[in-house]
Amino acid sequence: MILTIAVAILILMMMVFAVYSVETKDLLYAVVGTMAVSLIVSILFYVLQAPDVAMAEAAIGAGISTAVFVIAIKKTERYEHD
Amino acid sequence: MIKKSIALILIAILFVAIFFTLANDLPFGDNRTTTGVSDKYIYHGVNDTGASNLVTAIVVNYRGFDTLGEVTVLFVAATGVGAVLYNMGRPAGKKRKKTEASLIVRTGSRILFPMMLLFGAYIFVHGHLTPGGGFQGGAVIATAFLFKYVSDTRYHIDHNKFTATESVVGMTFALVGIMGLLLTGYFLFNFLPNGSPGELLSAGIIPIIYVAIGIKVGAELTGILDNMMEVEQ
């Protein structure tokens, strides 16, 4: 029961971050939002007893891809235009 | 505004529907794996392959050919990034002009860089014993190089050496497969003794392949990051 509640809270946080990264006009904040989603997904994978996938998600989803996005934003533009 | 609130309400309804359907139909944390083909992997995997980590046993041994395809996909992606970005405003012989990182970042990177490399190597060397493997270890190694790039504005990888390393380990993977074909008649078949499960030198060809994959993924991801860092704005 406690585990189910904790997982529900994590999934809710994940949804909040996901909606935020879609809605925000500042792309740097959006990237941080996707990183948070990846991090929570990796925690969920660990809870669901898939440590292999959790490691891949934490290293690639939260680490490398965030860096790639941040570099891309630095080389182009930070704010989204309508 | 109305569109937005409709979207939010839809998301909330979907969340409730999916979460409670899953919570009802799939009891959380229950053991539902002892049916079908997973049965075979769980009860015969360790004897078949000699690897304590069943995920690695499946990824490298049972479906090693798919893993060769995955590595090829990553290679093609890295080549594509290089091809698109290579001639895009690369300053000829000019250093990247950037603000210097702070003292804490520079000192921390000097201490942490070798540890991160070692940790990445640990992950892929122990891929057949503990969670993790070539892809995860390679990503950690690429993160270490990214840290070096962030902390030192003059840091620069030698592209030729990285490409050569990547080619050699990529060929190692293919050669191990071809040796299996020659010795046993099946591509990527395990031709080495399994050893006793749980030891570092066990599981036949799995450690060789995972070390190759780890170095390859590390070199490729570092190459992608380097290509992106070097492009002018």
Quick structural summary:
By secondary structure, chain A is an all-alpha fold. Chain A has helices spanning 2-23, 27-47, 51-75.
Verbal overview:
The complex is a heterodimer of chains A (82) and B (233). Chain A has helices at 2-23, 27-47, 51-75. Chain A is mainly α and 82 residues long. Chain A has one domain. In chain A, α2 runs antiparallel to α3. Chain A starts with a helix and ends in a 7-residue tail after the last helix. Chain B has 233 residues and is mainly α. Chain B has one domain (31-230). Chain B is built from eight helices and no strands. The longest helix of chain B has 26 residues, at 159-184. Classes of the chains: A mainly alpha (82), B mainly alpha (233).
Topology of this structure?
The complex is a heterodimer of chains A (82) and B (233).
Chain A lengths: L1 H22 L3 H21 L3 H25 L7
Chain B lengths: L1 H24 L10 H14 L4 H9 L1 H22 L17 H23 L8 H18 L7 H26 L21 H25 L3
Helix pairs in contact in B: 2-3, 3-4, 4-8, 5-6, 5-8, 6-8, 7-8
First-residue to last-residue Cα separation of chain A = 45 Å
Question: Which structural class is indicated by helix and strand composition of chain A?
Answer: mainly alpha
Biggest protein-protein contact in the assembly: A-B, 24 and 29 residues
Strand content of chain B: under 5%
- Tell me the radius of gyration of chain A: 14 Å
Q: Could you name the ranges of chain A where pLDDT drops below 50 across 5 or more consecutive residues? A: none
The best one-word shape of chain B is globular
| Number of strand elements of chain B | 0
In percent, how much strand structure appears in the residues of chain A?
under 5%
Offer a few descriptive terms:
A: 82 residues, mainly alpha, 3 helices, flat
